[in-house]
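**Sequence with structure:**
===
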Amino acid sequence: MNKSFLKKNNNKLYEKLMQEIAIMKKLDHPNIIKLLDVIDTAGYICIILEYASEGDLFEYILKDDKLDEN
């Protein structure tokens, strides 16, 4: 993510991103994608996440049109 875009367009968006990264670093649950690393350069923030081979939950729900409780 481009830092200058985040700060120029909405400084609160940058703050929320930093908060989200801090929260994700603390999470450790088998059903939540893990935050593996954050690369913070002068111009960009790169977020490295665990690979989800089946895609995200939204795509899964769209594909099957419903989600069983189990």
